[in-house]
Design brief:
alpha/beta; Rossmann fold; 18 strands
C-alpha cells in the first residue's frame, strides 16, 4: 500500500511539472488577445523602435576604380558619362560602349572631330541591306490648307472641295511609347508629291540597295543604332504657286495646326497651352524639304527658328541672296539659334553650283551662320535631281540633327 501511495505521489508531481513546462513554452510564443491583438506587454515600445531605426544615411562606397558593364558601374551603380570616345569606332574610352558624336559649334565634344558627310551614294553596311526585323507605323490625317482642323483618314481628289485638302502622314518608330518624348522631323515633299510618296513608295537610295521606302530606311537606321527613334511627319502643301506665295500659308499651318496637333497627340517635347496654342521645343524639331519643299523651307526659315532649330534643304534654293541674308539676320537671334542648316544637291542637277554659291554668300553675310560650325553644303557626286540625292542627304542630315548645338559668340 505504501509503495502504491508513493507511486501516485510521484505521478502527480511529474504531471504538475510537465504542465508547468508546457505553460512556460507557450509563454515564449506570440500570445494574443482573443481578438487577435498582441498583449500590451508584447507590443514594442516607441523607445525600442527608435533605438532600432538609424536615420543616418549609409556611407558612400569607398573610393574605387569603376568596373563598367553596359555603361554602368557594377560596384556603385553610377552611369558612365562618356566624356570621350575613339574618333573612328566611337567606343567610349572609359567603358567601351558605342556612343554617338555630340557636336558643339561643329566639333565633337568627345573626340574633337568635325561631322563627316558622304559625297557619294552612301554604301550602307551590308547588314542594312536586309529589311529591319521590326517596323514603325504610319497614320494618315488630312486638313484643309490654311483652314480647318486635322482629321483622321486620307482625302480623295474626286471633287473640287476634296482637291483643296492636304494629307499628313505620321511615322512612329517600333516600340513607340506615347508617354515618352521623341524628337520630331517634319518633311515637305517635292511639287506634286503626296505625303505617302516619300515614306511609303520605293525610291532610289543607291546602286547597291536599289529602291527603298522611306519608312524602311528609317526602320533600318533605328534598328542598327544609326539614329535614335524619332517621329516623322510628312506634310503636303503644294498650291501651284510660287514658294514666296505658299510660304505664309504653310508657316501658319505648321504653327497653328500641324505642330500643335503633333504636340497634343504624340509623345514630343513640345506641348500646347489651355487654348491649344503651341509651346514649341525647337531644339527637338527639325525641318527637311526636297526640291519645291526646300524652296518653301528657305522662305519660312527666317521666321520659324522658334519652331525648328535643325534644317535640311535639298535641291531647292532661294532667288535673292541679299534679301535672304537680311531676313535671316533680322529673324534669327541668340534665343532661337540655328543648330544646323544642311543644304545639298546632286552635282549633275541643274543649278547646283549656283545653289552652292548662295549658301557661301550666307556664310559670309549672316552672323548666325558659319560653314563648318552650323552650316554645310554637300554636293552628291554623279547624281541628278531626285530621290538618290534626297534620301542620301537625309541620311547625312541625321548625323547632326538633334546631336549638335550652336552657341553664338559672346
Amino acid at each position: 500500500m505504501k509503495d502504491l501511495r508513493m507511486r501516485a505521489i510521484r505521478a502527480a508531481v511529474l504531471s504538475a511539472l510537465l504542465g508547468a513546462a508546457l505553460l512556460l513554452l507557450a509563454g515564449c510564443g506570440d500570445s494574443r488577445t482573443p481578438d487577435g491583438e498582441r498583449s500590451a506587454a508584447e507590443k514594442p515600445s516607441r523607445e525600442a523602435a527608435a533605438a532600432v531605426y538609424d536615420p543616418t544615411p549609409a556611407p558612400p562606397p569607398a573610393p574605387h576604380e569603376h568596373k563598367w558593364h553596359d555603361g554602368v558601374c557594377t560596384i556603385c551603380g553610377a552611369e558612365c558619362p562618356h566624356e570621350s570616345h575613339d574618333v573612328q569606332s566611337c567606343l567610349c574610352t572609359a567603358c567601351g560602349t558605342e556612343t554617338e558624336h555630340s557636336y558643339l559649334n561643329g566639333i565633337c565634344t568627345r573626340c574633337g572631330a568635325a561631322p563627316e558627310f558622304h559625297t557619294e551614294l552612301i554604301q550602307l553596311p551590308e547588314d542594312m541591306g536586309v529589311p529591319a526585323e521590326e517596323h514603325g507605323e504610319l497614320e494618315s490625317f488630312y486638313y484643309a490648307l490654311g483652314t480647318g482642323e486635322v482629321l483622321p483618314g486620307e482625302h480623295g481628289t474626286a471633287t473640287a472641295e476634296e482637291r483643296k485638302m492636304r494629307n499628313l502622314v505620321v511615322y512612329t518608330p517600333f516600340g513607340y511609347d506615347p508617354e515618352k518624348q521623341y524628337d520630331v522631323l517634319v518633311i515637305a515633299p517635292g511639287a506634286g508629291h503626296f505625303a505617302r510618296y516619300w515614306l511609303d513608295r520605293p525610291n532610289r537610295l543607291s546602286g547597291v540597295f536599289g529602291r527603298i521606302k522611306g519608312r524602311e530606311l528609317l526602320d533600318r537606321l533605328i534598328e542598327h543604332g544609326r539614329i535614335e527613334p524619332m517621329i516623322v511627319a510628312v506634310v503636303e502643301y503644294y498650291l501651284h504657286e510660287s514658294p514666296e506665295d505658299v510660304a505664309p500659308i504653310y508657316e501658319a499651318d505648321l504653327r497653328e495646326r500641324i505642330l500643335p496637333f503633333l504636340a497634343a497627340n504624340y509623345g514630343t517635347y513640345a506641348s500646347v497651352d489651355e487654348d491649344g496654342r503651341l509651346i514649341a521645343a525647337p531644339e527637338h524639331f527639325a525641318f527637311a524639304g526636297a526640291s519645291y519643299g526646300a524652296m518653301v523651307g528657305w522662305q519660312i526659315l527666317p521666321d520659324c527658328t522658334d519652331m525648328f532649330s535643325y534644317w535640311g534643304l535639298f535641291s531647292g534654293a532661294f532667288r535673292n541672296d541679299e534679301e535672304m541674308a537680311e531676313r535671316i539676320n533680322g529673324g534669327v537671334d541668340a534665343e532661337h539659334p540655328i543648330n544646323w542648316l544642311y543644304a545639298g544637291d546632286g552635282d549633275e542637277a541643274p543649278g547646283w553650283s549656283a545653289y552652292k554659291h548662295r549658301v557661301e554668300y550666307l556664310d559670309e553675310n549672316c552672323e548666325s551662320l558659319e560653314l563648318g560650325k552650323n552650316l554645310s553644303f554637300v554636293a552628291m557626286k554623279d547624281v541628278e535631281h531626285g530621290f538618290s540625292t534626297w534620301n542620301n542627304s537625309l541620311i547625312n542630315c541625321l548625323r547632326v540633327f538633334f546631336r549638335s548645338r550652336c552657341v553664338p559668340a559672346g
